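We close this part of the discussion by returning to an individual protein. Part of our work consisted of pairing the sequence of a single chain with a tokenised description of its backbone. The amino acid sequence and the backbone structure tokens for this protein are reproduced below.
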Amino acid sequence: MTAPQISTHEVLNQSGAFTGVNSFSKDRILSAAVTREGGGWVAERATRLGAAVADPAWQEHAHLANTHTPELHSHDRFGHRVDRVDFHPSYHALMGLAFGSGVHSLAWTAQRKGAHVARAALSYLWNQLENGIGCPTGMAYSSIPSLGRVAPIREHFLPKVLAADYDPRILPVAEKRAATIGMALTEKQGGSDLRANMTRAVPVNGGGEGGEYRLTGHKWFCSAPMSDAFLTLAQAPGGLGCFFVPRSLPDGSRNRFFIQRLKEKCGNRSNASSEIEYADTYAILIGEEGRGIRTSLEMAHLTRLDFAIGSAGLMRQALNLTLHHTFNRRAFQRTLADQPLMQAVLADLCLESEAATLLAFRVARAVDESPDSENARLLERILTPVAKFWNAKRAPPFVAECVECHGGNGFIEEQPMPRLYREAPLNGIWEGAGNLICLDVLRALEREPDCAEALMAEILPVKGADATLDAYIAALDASLHNRQDWEGRARHITIAIATAMEAALMVQFSHPVAAQAFIDSRCSGLANRAYGSLAAQARLRDIVERSRLD
């Protein structure tokens, strides 16, 4: 029975929910980028996932999974240690959709060209639906090459991680349909300074790669603590090593893995993050003692790509919601989108979202091509941290502007915008905060000087398209070869690389009107500019219409 209506509460001039639109097939910018960069064969799978993004039932699952957050049960009612985290059924439903869609594994299972681009398309779409699940999918994606290094792990664990399935049961992995992977790298005294880790690893029967160790220590951040295994760092006799810690021992009993507490986070609330304790905990060494940082960086490199993709996807969803709202909400006898100042803001947001998308997918193609191309490897090395830094750095102000476009409605927890707002800063923190990422850009330029040459070779084909862009590219080239105050300029250099790359991609692949507006606003003009300050002559409505889905 429906409730009686009150005449004074007639609902007028509300935009309604953004539903019923396919976020892949209707997104011409995304679908063109995926096809151009070599992953067009994912279209059918991506279209299925794109339908879920704007499906009211899946949107409700995302809302519920973040409203009813994970709960830790360290002991059962009789006092036995259980170390169990309980999740709302909507969390499990979302995990089933994500892992069943191959968001975590397609790059490794497809066995065809463009696999990382195709997998990036799925991750981009997933980050429009629910970002907390993006943590376990991203950890699985980045861990798979490391899991393949040790024969017993490769044989018994890797097939379950690669499975397009989700099995939340607390069982030994041999009895499960699929497995998930978590990570526990940082400690309270070090954070990103992983060499400061104090967890100790004692070898059993000599140790060595693939050998058994016993870990003792405390980890400050362990993501997805109900995973079936974890990659972690500990100090072995030969130096810091990377270790594989299964939740279940070879005999089927539970490993000594103790969840001390869950973190209460600003965002990413559906995903459990925890502090854990190792106490004589069974582990297997991956790689060599003393090479743990290198092994973890191999994983971090892929995770950083995923963060560049995920931030672009999050921005795209914020833009989708904002365009939907402003084209369906009226003020002063016109839709909000028809108001000149709002149109300027919307066009600016469209440019930012498109550029972030083009940059992220160009990096994904470099990852695909790097095994067979030295130039692609160099480009991947320099652009992965650049894209991670810049897309993650642009997401928070971007989403804040989108919230403002919604007015008060954007600040209400029943709406999806507050969740996106809380999520937006996270990718800038995980796997290296901004300063660390910019120092990694310098490290790439110092250790592999050919990175600069590969970068400029990627940008220079657009030389001559615009005088302002030419001057910006020339200044970047000079900056890359000027080592004065090198570390102090790390952010300037990283931002300049990102902006030049985005401008070059916009010139090559966007509409000329959008490309010109991007160059005029990003390569010259106002310092510390706010969204909405595009040149007066920019064809704003044309820019906006290219990004509309509904």
Remarks:
- The first strand starts at residue 71 and ends at 75.
- Residues 479 and 485 are 11 Å apart (CA to CA).
- The mean pLDDT is 93.
- Residues 292-328 form the longest helix (37 residues).
